[in-house]
Amino acid sequence: MADDWKVGDLALCVRACPFGNDATRPGHAYSVTQIRINGVNWDGTRSTGLRFQGVARWGYSDSRRFVKVTPPEADEFDRETIELLNRAPAKEPAR
């Protein structure tokens, strides 16, 4: 439910902000960086507020507008690929 969010979760935006003051857009996925449990919304109700990596805004986004994206468990091929992608890029020799 609303309180099961963790930092690092992927959140898929499914509904636009009714006031248009949120930088998140429907159809885009965002990485959660901060969570505020039981925040008070504009209408006085309580829910979880989320902040996202790379999204600059002054407040928290209402978690009711997002669904958690849970990718399948990584297999050995996925782990090897991720390990290769996370390595430092090779330096080009100076010419």
The radius of gyration computed from the alpha-carbon positions, rounded to a whole number of angstroms, is 18 Å
Report the uncertain regions: none
**Strand ordering within the main sheet:** 4-3-2-1-5
**Span of the ends, CA to CA:** 57 Å
Quick synopsis:
By secondary structure, the chain is mainly beta. The chain is built from 1 helix and 5 strands, in the order βββββα.
Spell out the key features of this protein.
5-stranded antiparallel sheet, 95 residues, 1 helix, single chain, 12% helix, mainly beta, elongated
Outline the structure in words.
This protein is mainly beta. 12% of the residues lie in helices and 31% in strands. The chain contains one helix and five strands. It has one helix spanning 76-86, and strands spanning 10-13, 29-40, 46-52, 61-62, 66-69. A five-stranded antiparallel sheet has the order 4-3-2-1-5, with no helix packed on it. The longest helix is centred in the C-terminal third of the chain and has 11 residues, at 76-86. The protein is elongated and about 60 Å long. The relative contact order is 0.23. The mean pLDDT is 80.
Describe the protein's topology.
Layout: E1 10-13, E2 29-40, E3 46-52, E4 61-62, E5 66-69, H1 76-86
Antiparallel strand pairs: 1-2, 1-5, 2-3, 3-4
